[in-house]
Structure formats: C-alpha cells, structure tokens
C-alpha cells in the first residue's frame, strides 16, 4: 500500500515526540524476539484471506502477541490491519472486527465524533469531511464502542446507517486502538489524522493523561440574571463550570428570589437539584413536591421538570447535569 511509508514517517515523529524510540520493520521475525514495547503499531498489515500462507503471525508469534496484549501491552491498528489474519480468530477479537468490504475509490465522507472524551478524538471537530477508503466490518466485538462513525450516504451510497470507523477497547489487561482512516498517502499530512492516531498511541501505550484539575473561585462566576426556561422573576447564578475546558458535566449554584422559578422544560439528561436553603416546589411530569434545605431531587432524562421558590426566603440550590458531549 503506497501510504505505508508516509504512515511510518508520521508515526516515527509521533513516537519521538512522546519520548519513545520507534522501531520500524516489515520483517515478521521481529515478533520472534521478546515484545518489550510501549505499544505495537500495525500499519495496514493486509494478508490474503484465501491464502493462509500469507499470514505471518504463526506458531510462537501468535502466542507472543496474545501474551503481550492480554498481559497489558498496547496495539495501534491502522486501516487494513483489520484486513488481516483471517485464519486466526483471536486476532479478529483483538482488533475488534474484520474487514468485510469497501466501495470503490476514496470519496470524501462525513465523519462524526462520539460524545465521550478520548485522547484519539479530543482534538477533532464534532463533524468533518475527509477522503479515505471506507471499510465496512463484520464480526464486530460486543465491547466495541465507536469513537468515530461515518455516514455512507455522504459518499453517495444508499446505506442509511452510520458505520463504525474508529474504536478503542480493552483486551485482557491490554489496550487496542483501531482506526479505519489512513489508506491515502495524503492522510498522513492531514493534521486531523495525525492527531487522531497520536491520541490513540498515547492511550494504547498508557501515556494518556487526564486534563489538569481546575480550581474555581465561585465569586468570579456570579451574575444576576433571570432564571432559565421562562425568565420568571430574578435570581443570582454562579455558573461555576462554564470556563472549564473539556468538561463533560455542568455544576451550578442558583438562588431564586421570591416569586422566581426555573420554568418547566424537558430535560434530555439526568439532572440533580440539591436545596441549600429556603423552600420550593419541584415539578416532574406534572407531579409537584415541596422541598427544603437538605433535600436532593434526582430528575430523569425525558421528564418535564422545573422548580419554583416558595415561602418568605430565597431558594438556594446547586444543580448538576452531564453534557451531551465534552465542552470545547
């Protein structure tokens, strides 16, 4: 495959940027030696499904790779690494699936990033178009949770279902990252692909780190504003997590003035209200409950919910809920 030299050059840079010393080889005998690597990268390692003799993970090499992965090693599998070793069932389970087919050519398609945070996708846009060879898969592992999907319709195909494109999963104690991107030589000078694979390498090698913690001075987040969902009355809000990059949840404080309310609205995520002081009426799908200091209300996605101040004192509460996708 003409993209392999470009992939090796890009991966060499990625490895050295991470303090690793890369070993690039197309000699299967590499796997005859002890596998003492931070991660193994399989770059479009195609074999012929009709020719078992084309497979080079054979005999002790199979045992060595399986021990390495299940014992805690990392694998980064690129594109046609899924089109390989059809006569070794464990290999397909390790990758997470097998290549089934692809349409002709390398058309551009629309790719969608999954909501969850992962080093392989954190720098990518929510949606983007890119040209590649678009694999369909069979024998997908049940634990595969796609990080990227693509829309076949965006290439002119009639299939209406989004297809998995990249994923990461655990195999024993090991980490395996797979991406279907990388068929074209031009992919390896595309900053999106390079960052995507670099993040996958970080994760597979166990080097991915959580973002640094953020300490917030609540006073700097205080605003006077009408409550959301109807602007009923006035309130003081502390939009505590607004400036936290990469967050996956929100955490708020809000004090409702007398007569104020967060209007009834449908929530698409679970939500928690914790009452700090005062009293109020919480509504959930028409059911109303009086709450006071020390009361916590757990509200479920899909309900029509709201909360209104009652009594003589302002209603102070904290509110938390998950975001649909990590904040930028």
Question: How would you describe the overall organization of this protein?
Answer:
The protein is built from four helices and 19 strands. It has helices at residues 4-17, 60-70, 89-95, 191-204; strands at residues 40-43, 74-78, 98-101, 108-113, 127-131, 136-138, 146-151, 163-171, 174-179, 222-225, 235-238, 249-256, 261-266, 271-277, 279-284, 287-292, 296-299, 304-310, 315-322. With 328 residues, it is an alpha+beta fold. The protein starts with a helix and ends in a 6-residue tail after the last strand. The strands form four sheets. A seven-stranded mixed β-sheet has the order 1-2-9-8-7-4-5. Strands 10-11-12-19-14-17 form a six-stranded antiparallel β-sheet, with no helix packed on it. The relative contact order is 0.12. The radius of gyration is 25 Å and the shape is elongated. Helix 1 (4-17) crosses helix 4. The chain has two domains: 4-204, Rossmann fold; 218-322, Jelly Rolls (Sandwich), CATH 2.60.120.
Keywords for this structure?
single chain, alpha+beta, Jelly Rolls, 7-stranded mixed beta sheet, 6-stranded antiparallel beta sheet, 33% strand
Present the secondary structure layout.
Elements: H1 4-17, E1 40-43, H2 60-70, E2 74-78, H3 89-95, E3 98-101, E4 108-113, E5 127-131, E6 136-138, E7 146-151, E8 163-171, E9 174-179, H4 191-204, E10 222-225, E11 235-238, E12 249-256, E13 261-266, E14 271-277, E15 279-284, E16 287-292, E17 296-299, E18 304-310, E19 315-322
Helix pairs in contact: 1-4
